[in-house]
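Forum: Protein Structure Q&A
Topic: Joint prediction for protein chains with partners

I've read a bunch of threads here and the consensus seems to be that you should model interacting components together rather than docking separate models afterwards. I'd like to see that in practice. Below is the full input, 978 residues plus whatever partners are listed. Could one of the regulars post the assembled result?
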Amino acid sequence: MKPTDISHPEYFHKVVDCQYACPAHTPVPEYIRMIAAGKYDDAYMVNWKSNVFPGILGRTCDRPCEPACRRGRVEEGNVELRKPVAPGEHGIPHAEPVAICRLKRVAADNKGKDSVAARMPKAPTKKNGKRIACIGAGPASLTVARDLAPLGYHVSVFESDQKGGGFMRTQVPRFRLPEEVIDEEVDYILNIGNIELKSGKTIDSLKSILAENFDAVFVGTGAPRGRDLEAPGRKEAAANIHIGIDWLSSVSFGHITKIGKKVIVLGGGNTAMDCCRSSKRLGGEEVKVIVRSGYEEMKASPWEKEDAVDEGIPIMNFMVPKAFIHKDGKLTGMTFDKVKAEYDAKGRRNLVPTGEPEQLVECDDVLVAIGQENAFPWIERDIGLDWDKWGMPVVDQVTMQSTNPKVFFGGDAAFGPKNIIWAVAHGHDAAVSIDKFCQGENLHERPDPMTNLISQKMGIHEWSYDNDISDQLRNKVPWKDKKITLKDIKVEVELGFDPLSGFAEAQRCLNCDVQTVFSEKLCIECDACVDICPMDCITFTPNAEEAELRTQLSAPTPHAKTQDLYISETLKMTGRIMAKDEDVCLHCGLCAERCPTGAWDMQKYLIEMTHAGPGCHKSKAPQKQAA
Amino acid sequence: MTYIAKPKLHHPALTKNSVGYTRRDYEGKISTLCAGCGHDSISAAIVQACWELDIQPHRVAKLSGIGCSSKTPDYFLGNSHGFNSVHGRMPSVLTGANLANRELIYMGVSGDGDSASIGIGQFAHAMRRGINMVYIVENNGVYGLTKGQFSATADKGSKSKRGIVNSDEPLDMIGMALLLGATYVARSFSGDKKQLVPLIKGAMEHKGAAFIDVVSPCVAFNNHAGSTKSYEYVRQHNEAVNRLDFIEEREEITADYAPGEVINLTQHDGSVMRLRKLSEDHDPTNRIKTMNYVQEHAAKGEVVTGLLYIDPSAVDMHEHLNTVATPLNQLTAKELCPGSKALDRINASLR
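Posted by a regular:
Agreed with the consensus. Here's the joint model:
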């Protein structure tokens, strides 16, 4: 294999599994260390810069970081680990990632509101004269506004509701995300200045917006239409059949405060989980979730499924809705066909009837949460904007620009329903594009992210980070008493980590951003690093092609989706190479501590994504010279 | 030294041996030796050998004297018996322990100072008596603990870190072990675990006095140009005579070897030790020729490594002394005081 090029920004970024998996690439270990140090303001600001809504995301994020987290891999096969400190934990301990998402909330809960507010950017007094329109005040639009306002842009945000927040305010139930948190984080953005929230008015024509001569328009209107279920009896029983996301927003605004005693929620996604848990709080005594697929294949995040089950809501799988049953114009139940999963030769799943008789499930109300769709009835088709065959706008994956150069898309409006953190990531990318567009620059010439690699050595065996690896299992976030939470939809269920359990959880982080950097010129091949490595990551071996080299490792990885091998130049003494499997490295730094020559060093790799700003602009001077 | 304990977390694919332990279970405390010390590699090799041999840690007694090398038993086999004895006196304590309980596996760990200077007499007599043990000398040619004076094994003409040339003749531990009757004599290098681990395994299975001289560079005081015990020098001058693939009794020999390439040595318990020859003119079963061979190559400046000599039919001190099969420490008053009639019989036989 060729020696690894560690100067490539991608190489060490990949080693930081959590940050690499995050759509916004939040520097996770960096802020977790700050939480452990009690520097909550700093931790909050690192988050805020990258993902804009730390308090909201710390409660609701889809957390792609956690399935990626290395901690989940390295705890495998280590059952002798210490039991968690949280009381009431039973069962066989199993490998789990760091509770990254809930640690974000620790920063948000414990920061000083005033001190953080004082650190927020302010719009400059001198404007740049450019006007931007953002349609919808959800996470994507607010991110664009936040990135552009401090640069001197004037941003008008159009929102049909009274307040900003979009999906976060209308569809996420209050028992998961209190209103104050949304208000606070939306206000941080609006208070930057130069952002005008035009609320309470629905935009019904993009043409009219374009006619207002904005320099650019950003569309962040989400995926506002819930999919309906066409089945016999749908029309007759319509009074008791509700579309999930519409029902959730009615609940959110207080228009709906009650539901029948027996409720069926159709669908297996996160919206279905919010619907069933909300129903339980509004008078639903027998709430059931009924899903076509099996439990494992449900789209909802595992923890959201677990939370619903924990609240006593049964999830019934492999049942396909057949008909709504009604009597005298009133819904009385639904019938279902039972199916089973069969896989064809290509591994594709087919749901085939089991042949059992149809099953009747009685109910008073049905909530349909079987998916969301995009809807753009308000965008004219003659404004130079191309559409694909699924009715979605044609949008550049990198620049977020549509075929009308002035119009940009982001969030669920761009590529269909995703989640908040993706919307934020789109917002950042769109802001870079809009900024460059307004400066008359090529949108595709985007600067690389900022990277920094610096030694963490403080003394002979002292590092600037805590390299003593915690052997604690994942801490559980405490819940408020169910007797209270199941009665009041506005009472938040999760209490969040307190500073002590937050510290304990933060210590589980392996500091994967503190990289093991190898200098072959200094190596004397004494084997000290090989001997000390607790995870057997390091091997000195003759070079070979990757497939063969992997078989020569001290401990080949059992994981299918592996990290890269870190390969050194040929070593001068024996002609071998150093091969380090990054897969289960603990970043404990013992290789560097036991290295007599400093050939191994622990260096912190900080990568910050490109955000809109002067750094993205081409220097004008060289251009003139070239011309 | 490292301040933190080695993390308990281990590789997810780490396997257990037939007695239910992972390799990590054979480790000891974290080393307090200098970073890069060859001794730590030897500790790791001992850990690997014991794990591969499915040895139950409580069946091992590790003994040592004084010095950097003699600290190391704290860093491996944390669940075994241990005795950190007086300087140079490890062989006596080991001999006594072996006499008292012949059932344990004895591992003596010593250094060039502990064995070649203050303990040279003890070393000699332990070899002579053929005690069933593994005697490892972690040989760095320097007194590391007292800041780098030449030890008795430092080669004549080699240079100290301060530039002083050694004018004394070195003490040849291999040559002495051969002369004094050790029945398993090997030399290896701390930086070559592929060679060292099988040699330790072979020594542990050998019934008799097994001696391994392991060149183990001192990174702090003897790893410079002019040293003959540095990583670089040993790598450049290492002449391996053979590779030992220790095999169990039931294991079938399937690999193909050219004629004369392999020597199969049947041990007296029936197991077979397989040696892959790397040097044509070396016969590891001939003691006299081995002595010449090692001296000739040493004169050329080569460090000969591998299994240099073995007597597969060796016997140990207990056979020489004709002791009972039951360990002496398990004999009760009944066996030890057979009564006045037995005494009368003995007395009568002496009249």
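Chain B touches chain A at residues 1-14, 24, 30-31, 34-38, 40-41, 43-44, 190-191, 193, 217, 219, 223, 231-232, 235 (CB under 8 Å).
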